[in-house]
Design a protein that fits this description.
This protein has 15 helices and ten strands. The chain is α+β, with helices and mostly antiparallel strands. An eight-stranded antiparallel β-sheet has the order 4-3-2-1-7-8-9-10. Strand 9 and strand 10 form a beta hairpin.
Amino acid sequence: MTDLTARVQPAPAALALDTYRAIWRWHFYAGLIAVPFMILLAVTGSLYLFKDEIDDTAFAYRNLVAETSTTPLPPSELVARGLKAVPGSTLSAYREPADAAGSARIALTKDGETVYAFVDPYSGRVLDTVEKRQEFNEVVRKIHSLEYFGPYANRLIEAIAGFAIILVASGLYLWWPRRQTGGIVFVRGTPSKRVFWRDIHAVTGAFAGLFIAFLAFTGLPWSSVWGSKLTELTVATGTGYPAALWDSVPVSGEHASHKMETVGWTMEASPMPMSQDMPMAHEMPAAPPSPIGLDRAVAIARERGMAPRFEVTVPGDDKGVYSAAVFPHDLARARTIHIDQYSGEPLVDISYADYGAAAKAIELGINIHMGQEFGLANQLLMLATCLAIILASVSAVVMWLKRRPSGRIGVPPYPTSRRVYVGLWMLAIICGVLFPLSGFLILAMLAVDLLIIRTVPPLRRLFA
């Protein structure tokens, strides 16, 4: 929000001044709505960047085990120990240890809830059990997406992601040098002065803006409205998962997101294959086919070279399949294999290399967003961006409190030109097309501002 002074520069053209006022007012309203959510996203996102480090320190007692020369117990035995620790539960999925010092994680279902049992693969001792909804990183993830507060709250986060992009674009316009001598690269004044907080806000936003926009864009694929439309587009254009791999495979009406314990963005909408338990007409087996069992399914996944820590979701019925999936930090090793539960035949085997162009780009963006692609450097860069979001948000609030008149909200002044309003409505429509939920909020924001606040004198004075 650049200070406009007339001491050393000529008065700007009326249209330019009105445009500045309009963008400033829009930026102010968007920030007023988005700031609490931006801080929430930045704090929880910072924690989630280091989820593995948190698991290996705060929760080492259940995630790490002492390495021994003993041969690990078979998965079925580890599952049996987990089932015994959670009476009345059924098996959902088995996750391999990350390495020789890692525990196995058994996903169990009880009373409609998922419970994780962490088991020492050498001794079979159950190290801990915790409901999935209470697991620390799961709590952080659900706060980050507002899933705790229902689907509509989750959609609000989608709208805020669009607002973040709008704030970056409008903020860069307001920051852009207009012959002022400070606040472009360096910060003026002291913390007691409003200009100090203005410069902190402007400089931080300007230099971190592209990274903030990147985080917003790469978070949108997981959203309900924008993300589902993106999925439909990649499937329709053949740039998502390679649908041809399912052409010769019978499929159910379920998608991977409904059946698998862990699934990546690209594979969420992929159909689930079905196992073939009935022989061909000319084949008359002596007995009905028997399932291969979890041990064999895990062995098949190992034999086919899946990366460590892969997870095997078990069949839900006699038509279901074993689904082995892994989404490691090394995106090139991401893989999903659906295995016939009777023959052990891999029905679909898909890796990152098989994804379409759009899916590859989206998955890469998501991996960077989560701090997984380039190791510690990636984590630190995303952490710095989260800290920049917090700093820009806090400085915006402090700047506003120092600027606003006593007893008033202190909204930037209205533009005087009607042409500017036409431009604003056009921008709102464009934003609505690109980001539907954000566009809806913008239209509501403009309608309230122009049709209610501006026409009701007490409100006009309050917001002035």
